[in-house]
Structure formats: structure tokens, C-alpha cells
């Protein structure tokens, strides 16, 4: 089998970001209508106007040309559950009932390594098919589920962040890991996987409702012992969940204070949902530099509530965008952005396309503390790339007849009408995914 080329160039409309357009304005976006991305040894060597860079293309470089398409950094998802691929489209339940009736039943199957391997392979291939090249992923409480996931990601050369779920109460016995055992298993998994190739570890208590004080103390110890790991959990998704947390932790003045007491708030902390927070909780998230993960399709499907992006912006809270499969209903970050737009419309707010694509690329890379490696076409960064076709379907092509060279409109068409069919090609470290 021929060795893949070590040098490659991608030609098309090249778009990436240097900052959040909501803060920095139009100058945050770099747009080269006839652009070139030069890749050497799996990393970005240069990106810019083709007229400036064609002379730098070395002999033997393969040039992949995508006329009419946009070339962007690979899309990033900051909150998703790989064991829930067969929980999507589970009918008629709110959060706590949904967990008990569907999710906990499904997650017990991941004690069997073969099942975990099969689902991990499907999950990662489905992400790639939808243009997602990096994700922050929840596994189950079984270490086997983590090993299966990371091995599948490693085989695909995908950069991922993931962790073993930690739960020691209010779940089936088969899913409980106990405070000490959960700590020991997590520590062993961190040693085995964190920083190995393109893999990173996220310390992952499911949420306060399924962890005792002791387990949260042990979680805080893990965070202190491994400050370069992420911490991911859920916060204030559902009214009944918030009530349950208050009953289990009567000393806490708020849900956020539970996590704060155990040292789980910080710049590497990602909190899924954050729908029903008091002002002091929002302020505390900002002070800690924590990230709120906006999961629109999940919030709508489970009926949890409507995310308030403007409130988070005013408070200075960092926000990521996420699918939250399988409460979320699509693996596509494009579909997720479309639903985010609709949620914010119901709030009397707007999400313009430039900010949405920033969130899906550099913004989410920053949320995962990976913006020094992915999320933009900065020279030296890993060459994870997605090529999007804004005329991928007849309806999109029909709409694009009126778009011309208008980049804002082109991005908005992709955001509101696009899905996996708009993904023309995905590159991981400069090589076509699946090649």
C-alpha cells in the first residue's frame, strides 16, 4: 500500500477565526475566497490567499481543489455521550425519568468490552461523517468503555478528550463505582491515556445527584492532582434535578456551590446545560473561568429549557456549543447551530453565522484548552480540516443562487440548511478521514 503524501495543499474558500466576532468584530474572521492551506507532516504550514502561497507549494505536494466549497478547521463538540448512540429518539420523558428509563439501562451494556468497541467505532465514524474532528466525550462508569473509546480514537488519529463516568448513588448497582474505586479507576485511566498521542482525559462525575459528598471530595482530589486534565459534568439542566440536588446537599445555597465546595470550578471545567442559574451562580462561573455548554437540541428534546446566551455574555461567562447526543438529536454541529439559532430567537436574541462558526471551531477549542493545537489555521497547528459544500442539496443550491460571494449568507445557509450532506471531506492531521 502506497504511503500517504507527507505534503498536501487544500484550495477553496479558506475561512477561520482569530477571536470571537461578538467581541472583536469582523476583524476576527479571516476569509480568503481563493485560498490555500498548505499542510506538511500533518500540520498547518501556511494558510492564506492562493495567489500569495502557490509559489510556496513544494514539488510533489498533492493539491486537493474544492471550487465552490468552504475550507474550515474541523468542527468541535464540547459535550457528548458516546454510550447513548442507541438512546437517541427515546420517547416522552424528562431528564430524571429519561436517565432511569433509557440511559441507565443502555449504559449497563458497556461492561462488555466487545459492545463498547463496536459502539465506539460507530460513534467516532459518525462524528467524522458530520465534520466533527474533536469532541469532549462521556464514557460509562466501566473502565472498559474508556479503553475501547480511546483505542478507537487512536486508531483513527482523532484528537479527543474523554473520561470514565463517576457515580456512587442514585443509579443501578451495576453502574455504581464507589467513591474510592471510582477514584482509583480514574487515576489509572489518566495514567494510561492522558497525553498519549492525541488523547486527553476529562475527570467526569456525572452530576451531583449521582455522587456522594465523599465521591465529590475524591473528584476534587483528582482535579488537584491532575491540573492539566479537564473536568466535565452537568449543572442546572432541569428543575427536578435542581430540587434533587438541593435535597441531597442541604448545606448548599445553590447547585453551583456544591461543585465549588469540592474544587471543581476552574478554567478547565465544562458544565453541561446551565439553564436555571441564579445570578450569583452565573457570576461564580465567570470568576472561575468555567465553560457553560449550550446543548440546544437536547434542551428542546428533553424539555429542559432555553439557554440564555445574552445573559452569559453580559456576565462574561465562557460558552461552548454542543450536541449532547443522545439527549441531543443530531451528531451534526451544523444542525446544532441551527437549533441554537431558533432557541435564541425564542429568547429575543440572535446568533449570527460568524459567531456560530467561531463557536464550532476556535471557540470550542478554547473551551477545551486546545486552541494551541486545533481550531484555526495557525501555522504549526494540527491539520484537522472540514470542507463544506454550501450547495450540497438541491434546496441549498437553489438558495445559494442568490448568495453570490456573500460569506455571511453562505455561512448562514450552511448553518440553517446544512447537515452531514454538506460535509464534502474531512482531514485528520492532513490525511482524508477513513483513508
Low-confidence stretches: none
Helical element count?
A: 16
Mean pLDDT rating? 96
Q: What general form does the structure show?
A: globular
Report the biggest beta sheet as strand number plus sense, adding barrel if it closes: 9 strands, parallel
Question: Cα distance, first to last residue?
Answer: 11 Å
Question: What would you report as the Rg, rounded to the nearest angstrom?
Answer: 21 Å
| Relative strand content | 15-25%
Number of strands: 16
Query: Can you give the helix content as a percent range?
Result: 25-40%
Overall structural class, as computed from helix and strand content, comes to alpha/beta
Description of the molecule:
The protein has 435 residues and is α/β, with parallel strands linked by helices. The protein is 38% helix and 23% strand. The chain contains 16 helices and 16 strands. The chain has helices spanning 21-24, 50-53, 95-107, 113-129, 143-156, 179-193, 213-225, 239-248, 255-261, 279-288, 296-301, 309-315, 333-346, 353-367, 394-400, 407-417; strands at residues 7-17, 29-40, 43-49, 62-73, 75-81, 132-138, 160-163, 165-166, 199-205, 230-235, 269-273, 291-294, 318-321, 385-388, 423-428, 431-432. Strands 5, 6, 7, 8, 9, 10, 11, 12 and 13 form a nine-stranded parallel sheet that branches. Strands 3-2-1-4-14-15-16 form a seven-stranded mixed sheet.
Outline the fold blueprint.
Elements: E1 7-17, H1 21-24, E2 29-40, E3 43-49, H2 50-53, E4 62-73, E5 75-81, H3 95-107, H4 113-129, E6 132-138, H5 143-156, E7 160-163, E8 165-166, H6 179-193, E9 199-205, H7 213-225, E10 230-235, H8 239-248, H9 255-261, E11 269-273, H10 279-288, E12 291-294, H11 296-301, H12 309-315, E13 318-321, H13 333-346, H14 353-367, E14 385-388, H15 394-400, H16 407-417, E15 423-428, E16 431-432
Helix pairs in contact: 4-5, 5-6, 6-7, 13-16, 14-16, 15-16
